[in-house]
Amino acid sequence: MKKIGILFGKERSFPMAFVERINSKNIPGIIAEPVRIDKVMQGESSGYAVIVDRISQDVPFYRAFLKNAALCGTAVINNPFWWSADEKFFNNCLATKIGVPVPKTVILPSRDHPVDTSEQSFSNLAFPLDWEGIFNYVGFPAYMKPFAGGGWKNVYRLNSADDFFQKHSETGELVMLLQEEIVFEEYYRCYCIGGKYVRIMPYEPRNPHHLRYVSDFSPSAERLQQMEQIVLRINHYLGYDFNTVELALRNGVPYAIDFCNPAPDAEKTSVGEENFNWVVETAATYAIERAQSHQDGMDNLTWGEYLKRSTAKQILV
């Protein structure tokens, strides 16, 4: 019997519906359940062929458990090793190399010294930074947000250099991004599952939270195909099995705004019934596919094109 588990936190509608949908298919040799952990011993199997991870970004213990499970052959969705290494600034840097338009973005050192460091720890860092060059590159208005993390926390819209310095003084030890504002005509949030299933959802981030999936625009067939190709390209290079990509259309050009969302919102009250039904059905289908292709004791993780190509070059050398 191959078990599919889901590891989750406060959310309830998606995890329970996911489990129920898989079990309702009555596929011989496959069952789904919420993950149960009563002990974690090094090098020992978790007992799951597949685990869908919805919470380890907030719980380091879970991330360590998932890495051990993956080493023992579990197909973890998403790859916990890559997720541990990834962050939003790298994603933007990668996008510039694979032909995906992104806002002009710079990374900033933390306002306060990290614990166990002092001024001597930053002898390689110019002081002051080239603020004029940074501001001329990004422009104002701009957004400042953490280079890692999500959930629209510690995000600032800035109108000037003075505004920047005042807000940056509040960020403590957070490493922040300063990013060009994209004034958009249309905005889309796009699920991508398994590197092949894409759902492009009109999204209005300026609406109240409960109305953000209500909009008065929709893409043409040509624009839909263009956005789908961008979403697939991003996820193929990153290697995410389950992710969302946010695209803002400015003058008809889709800019990737945020595409490091490996535990994207899938609550029914947030995304609406149609989107919820799609993500439950598609996630269930994909998890079953991974369980059926699972090989005991092997590496069953997904690795992105960026890593695979880099590794191939090292082997050739």
Tell me what the structure shows:
The protein contains 10 helices and 12 strands. It is globular. The longest helix has 21 residues, at 273-293. It has helices at residues 13-24, 60-71, 80-85, 88-97, 131-138, 161-168, 221-238, 268-271, 273-293, 305-316, and strands spanning 2-7, 30-34, 50-53, 75-77, 105-108, 142-146, 156-158, 176-180, 186-193, 197-202, 242-250, 253-258. Strand 9 (186-193) and strand 10 (197-202) form a beta hairpin. The strands form 3 sheets. A 4-stranded parallel β-sheet has the order 2-1-3-4, with helices on both faces. It has a 4-stranded antiparallel β-sheet with strand order 5-8-6-7, sandwiched between helices. Strands 10-9-11-12 form a 4-stranded antiparallel β-sheet. Helix 1 crosses helix 9 (273-293). It is of the alpha/beta class. Helices cover 35% and strands 20% of the residues. Among the domains are: 2-85 and 285-289, Rossmann fold (3-Layer(aba) Sandwich), CATH 3.40.50.20; 104-180, Dna Ligase, domain 1 (2-Layer Sandwich). The model has no long low-confidence stretch (mean pLDDT 95).
